[in-house]
Design brief:
heterodimer; A: about 260 residues; alpha/beta; six-stranded mixed beta sheet; B: about 280 residues; about 80% helix
C-alpha cells in the first residue's frame, strides 16, 4: 500500500491579543492509500486543527502536508471534508445538495447522484429539503456530497458527535460499508474511543499542550467488528491506558 | 460486510405533507382579510345614504362604483392607469436593479462597503419631497424626472435589504463552498443569492410600495396624465368620487403587486424552516 498523505514536521501556533498558543508541535504522520485512520485525543490537542491543515482550509503553519506528493496549499475536491454539522444548503433538496454546483440536468450527474443516494440509503428522499431530514440523514447527504467528487481522502471532523447513540452506531456501519465499497482513504477525528476501535485500522493518539502524536496503534481486528468481543475490549483498554497517561496531570475532558 | 436498514430507530423524516388539506385551508386567510374592508364600506354607505355625512365631501361607495364604471367606459381610467403603471414599473426596474447590484457588491466586499455605504446611508435620510423640486428643474416635467424620482425611491429598500441579506449568509457555508471549489460566479449564484433571497424578496416588496408612493408624489407635483393627475384634476372640481377612484385604484394595484411577490416568496422560499404562527 502506497502512502497517499504525508505530514512532515508540522507545527502550528495561534496568535491572539493575550499571546500565542502552540497548538501543534512537530507532527509526523503517513497515511497509506485505502487506510482508515482515526485521530483521538483530549480536548484542545489540536486534532481538528490538524484536519483543517490537511484540508487546506488553514495554510498558516510550518512544515509540510502533501497528498500524493503534492503540497496542499488550498481546499480542493480531492480532499472531501465532513464537518461536525451537516452544513447542507437549506434551499436545495437532497439531490440538489449532493450535486451542489454540478448541473442535475446532465444525465451523468443525475446518474452519479442516484447511485450515491443508494449508497447512503436515502432512496425516496431525493426531493426532501434539509429541514425535513433528521440529523443522521443530513450527515449522510453531506457524505454523499463529498463522495460525488471522488475524493482521494475523506476528512471527517467528529462527524457523528452531535448524534444520538443509535443513529451514531448506524452511521458508523454505513461509513464502513462505504469505505469497503469505495476504498476511499479516511481520516476521522473523534473523541470517542469505541468509535476509533470500531472503525479504523490505525488509531493516532494525540496529546495536548502542545499537540503531539503520542502513539500510533494499529488495529488488526477483522471487519465487521463486534463491540462486545474480548479482542475489541482489549484494544479499547489499551487505548484508554495510553490516553490515561495524560490524565495524571490534568483531566482529559473539558466542559 | 454489515448491512444497514433504511432508517434507524429515532431517525424518521417528515415526508412532504399532503397538499389537499392545505388547499382547502388556503381560503380561510382570504375570508378573514376582507372582514374589515367590508365592514368599513357597509358603515360608509349607511352613513351617506341616511344623510349623516355630506355626499359632496365624503362621497359614498355606491357613487364611487358608478364613477368606476363611467371612467372605464370613457377610457379615461385605463388610460391614466396604464401611464402610471408604466412609470412605476420603469422606475422600479431601474432603481431596484441598481439597489440589488449595489447591495450585493457592498455585501460581498468590505472595502466597497467602506467607500459606498456612508454616502448611500446619508442620501437615504434626505426626504424625497425635498429632492423633487431639483429633479423638476433638472429634468423638466417630462417622463424622465418622474421615472428618476421613482427609481431613487425604489433604490434604497432593495439596497439595504440585499446588503443585510448577504451579511446574514452563514459563514460556515462559505467554508463548504471553498471545499467544493466554487468559483467566484458560482459562489454568487449558488450560495450568496439563494441564501439572501428572503431579504431580497422583502426588499422587492418594500421597493415596489415605495415606487408606488413616489409615483403619486411625482404625478401630484406636475403631470398631464396618470392616476395622480386624475386625482389632482378632480380635486379642483371637488369631484370627491373621482378622487376616491384614484385612491382606491392605487390601493388595489399596490396590493396586487405585493401579492404577486408574496406568491413568488411562497414558491421560492419553500425550503425555509421558520415559525408560521
Amino acid at each position: 500500500m502506497s502512502a497517499i498523505l504525508d505530514i512532515t514536521n508540522v507545527s502550528k501556533t495561534f496568535h491572539n491579543e493575550s499571546g500565542s498558543t502552540h497548538v501543534l508541535s512537530e507532527l509526523n504522520l503517513t497515511v497509506g492509500e485505502g487506510d482508515f485512520v482515526t485521530v483521538i485525543g483530549p480536548s484542545g490537542c489540536g486534532k481538528s486543527t490538524l484536519l483543517k491543515l490537511i484540508a487546506g482550509l488553514d495554510t498558516d503553519y510550518s512544515g509540510a502536508v502533501s497528498i500524493e506528493g503534492r503540497k496542499v496549499d488550498r481546499p480542493s475536491q480531492d480532499k472531501g471534508f465532513i464537518f461536525q454539522e451537516h452544513r447542507l444548503f437549506p434551499w436545495l433538496d437532497v439531490a440538489g445538495n449532493i450535486a451542489a454546483d454540478l448541473p442535475l440536468r446532465k444525465p451523468e450527474v443525475r446518474e452519479r447522484v442516484a447511485e450515491l443516494i443508494r449508497l447512503v440509503k436515502l432512496e425516496g428522499f431525493e426531493k426532501a429539503y434539509p429541514r425535513q431530514l433528521s440529523g443522521g440523514m443530513s450527515q449522510r447527504v453531506a457524505i454523499a456530497r463529498a463522495l460525488l467528487r471522488n475524493p482521494k481522502v475523506l476528512l471527517l471532523d467528529e462527524p457523528f458527535g452531535a448524534l444520538d447513540a443509535f443513529t451514531r452506531a448506524h452511521l458508523q456501519d454505513a461509513l464502513l460499508d462505504i469505505w469497503q465499497a469505495n476504498r476511499t482513504t479516511m481520516v476521522l477525528v473523534t473523541h470517542d474511543i469505541d468509535e476509533a476501535v470500531f472503525l479504523s485500522n490505525r488509531v493516532v493518539v494525540m496529546d495536548a499542550k502542545p499537540g503531539t502524536i503520542k502513539a500510533v496503534i494499529p488495529i488488526d481486528l477483522p471487519y465487521p467488528r463486534k463491540r462486545s468481543g474480548t479482542a475489541f475490549q482489549d484494544i479499547r483498554t489499551h487505548l484508554l491506558r495510553s490516553l490515561e497517561h495524560h490524565e495524571s496531570d490534568e483531566p482529559s475532558y473539558a466542559i | 460486510m454489515t448491512t444497514t436498514t433504511i432508517a434507524a430507530p429515532g431517525e424518521q423524516a417528515l415526508r412532504p405533507q399532503a397538499r389537499k388539506r392545505q388547499r382547502t385551508a388556503s381560503w380561510r386567510p382570504l375570508r378573514r382579510g376582507i372582514v374589515i374592508p367590508v365592514l368599513v364600506v357597509a358603515l360608509w354607505q349607511t352613513l351617506s345614504s341616511t344623510g349623516s355625512i355630506s355626499e359632496t365631501l365624503y362621497s359614498s361607495p355606491w357613487n364611487i362604483l358608478n364613477q368606476y364604471i363611467e371612467l372605464t367606459k370613457t377610457g379615461e381610467l385605463p388610460h391614466h392607469l396604464r401611464i402610471s403603471v408604466v412609470r412605476a414599473a420603469l422606475g422600479f426596474l431601474l432603481g431596484g436593479s441598481l439597489g440589488l447590484l449595489t447591495g450585493l457588491l457592498v455585501g460581498m466586499s468590505q472595502r466597497f462597503e467602506q467607500y459606498v455605504n456612508p454616502t448611500v446611508q446619508m442620501l437615504r435620510t434626505v426626504p424625497l419631497l425635498a429632492i423633487t423640486p431639483l429633479f423638476i428643474m433638472w429634468f423638466g416635467f417630462g417622463e424622465l424626472s418622474k421615472v428618476l424620482l421613482i427609481s431613487l425611491g425604489a433604490f434604497f429598500p432593495l439596497y439595504v435589504n440585499t446588503f443585510l441579506g448577504v451579511r446574514n449568509v452563514d459563514r460556515k457555508l462559505f467554508e463548504v463552498a471553498r471545499v467544493l471549489e466554487f468559483n467566484g460566479l458560482r459562489q454568487l449564484t449558488r450560495l450568496v443569492l439563494p441564501a439572501s433571497l428572503p431579504n431580497v424578496l422583502l426588499g422587492i416588496r418594500l421597493s415596489l410600495s415605495t415606487s408606488w408612493l413616489c409615483l403619486v408624489v411625482a404625478e401630484l407635483l406636475g403631470a398631464e396624465s396618470g392616476v395622480g393627475y386624475m386625482i389632482q384634476d378632480a380635486r379642483s372640481f371637488v369631484q370627491t368620487d373621482i378622487v376616491f377612484v384614484g385612491i382606491t385604484i392605487f390601493a388595489i394595484v399596490g396590493k396586487l403587486s405585493d401579492s404577486l411577490v408574496r406568491v413568488l416568496e411562497h414558491r421560492l422560499l419553500r425550503w425555509q424552516d421558520s415559525f408560521k404562527g
